[in-house]
Amino acid sequence: MIEIPSDLHPDLVPLAFLIGNWQGAGVADFPGTEKCNFGQEVSFTHDGRDFLEYRSHSWVLDEEGKRARPLESETGYWRIGENRRMEVVTVRDQGVVEVWHGELAEQKPQIDLATDAMARIPSSGPYSGGKRLYGYVNGDLMWVGEKATPEVELRPYMSAHLKRVVDPREWIHEVKDLPDDGIAFFK
Questions:
Q1: pLDDT at residue 126 in the model
Q2: pLDDT at residue 43 is higher than 90
Q3: 21, 43 in Cβ contact below 8 A?
Q4: What is the C-alpha separation between 101 and 130, in angstroms, rounded?
Q5: Of 83, 94, 117, 145, which alpha carbon lies 20 to 30 A from 74's?
């Protein structure tokens, strides 16, 4: 179920499905880099203004599914304009800044984005643009990213399946008069 916070800016109502904390796993694979499974945490938050704040942290998973080392971190701001047009700005820890444009699909929670502009520091490595597709599917957030370099044409490089994470602080106020021993609660 998608909840719309009472203090959400009215322009952001179509993006309410993104709000919250998400965790999951995915696969990264691009020529010239190590293919790996990764874990990811993503958050979309708001403060009443006309944008969502976005944060993403991912890490390489070892063969046992444990965190091996950091993979990527990224922060940004997501806006929606007229005619469901998306405007997104992101900064990645590798030294890449991207401006994304796209749209929120009609009648379904799906967002298509493509880079409109990007800048990078020399040590960030080759990069010439990308595309992303985000979708809210059966209560989960799924995404796939494509990227291009001067040597490699646009192709998928990362995808993940994320599940909403519930923070107990969000619902603890609803638990009233819980017995001290906890056992009586089940009787």
A1: 93
A2: yes
A3: yes
A4: 11
A5: 83
CA distance 119 to 182: 56
Distance CA 51, CA 57 (A): 20
Residue 19 to residue 3: CA distance in whole angstroms:
9
Q: Within 10 Å of residue 18's Cβ, how many Cβ atoms?
A: 22
Q: Which residue has the tokens 């957030």?
A: 141
Q: What distances in angstroms separate CA 32 from CA 36, 126, 154, one per listed residue?
A: 12, 11, 14
Name the phi and psi angles at 158, rounded to 5: -150, 145
Residue 2 main-chain phi, psi, to 5 deg: -95, 125
How far apart CA 112 and CA 13 sit, in angstroms, is 17
Q: Provide the mean pLDDT of the chain.
A: 92
Contact 145, 130 (CB under 8 A): yes
Tens of pLDDT, residues 58-83: 999 999 999 999 999 999 999 999 99
Query: Is 184 a residue whose pLDDT tops 90?
Result: no
How crowded is residue 160: how many other Cβ atoms within 10 Å of its Cβ? 23
| Residues 6+ away with beta carbon under 8 Å from 70 | 57, 58, 59, 60
The pLDDT value recorded for residue 121 is 96
Q: Count of residues for the chain?
A: 187
